[in-house]
Design brief:
mainly beta, 2 domains, 3-stranded antiparallel beta sheet, 2 helices, 31% strand
């Protein structure tokens, strides 16, 4: 009897047809199972200008007072809650794709910012944050003079 260990590789044992069949079956047995996206919070764009870090988050259906924004160290946190205003029985739905509930989105800022000078605006479902860069990280110009 041999004492060798054989590494099990489950994907090697599946043909492409079997893998697709299994994926299809799982989606029928557990609706939304394999194709259900993970909801991490609002979609965000972040970019830098010379003086600021700009963050735009899409939060349709929320009011400004339903959004909490905080900065701790180099981490920006955006929290809120999408509330379902209508009560519909589960078996009455034809489609039920909108997400409801709390979200918390955390991102690492690309540079140090001055949080107490940050500005937040909310318009048409888009939260825009203007985070001024800390003075010590802003580029400094040094004039070179000839002698």
């Amino acid at each position: 009897m041999s004492d060798s260990v054989v590494r099990w590789e489950p994907l090697r044992e599946l043909t492409l047809r079997e893998a697709v069949s299994r994926l299809f079956e799982e989606s029928l047995i557990r609706p939304g199972g394999a194709f259900q996206p993970i909801f991490e919070g609002p979609s965000v764009d972040m970019y830098q200008t010379k003086d600021d870090v700009i963050v735009k988050a899409t939060v349709p259906g929320l009011k400004p007072e339903d959004i909490d924004v905080s900065i701790t160290g180099d981490t920006l946190t955006i929290k809120g809650e999408f509330k379902d205003s209508e009560k519909v029985e589960q078996d009455q739905y034809v489609y039920h794709e909108r997400r409801f509930g709390q979200f918390c989105r955390q991102m690492t800022l690309p540079t140090r910012v001055t949080a107490d000078k940050a500005k937040a605006e909310f318009e048409h479902g888009v939260l825009t944050l203007k985070l001024p860069k800390a003075e010590e990280v802003k580029p400094k110009t040094i004039t070179v003079r000839a002698r």
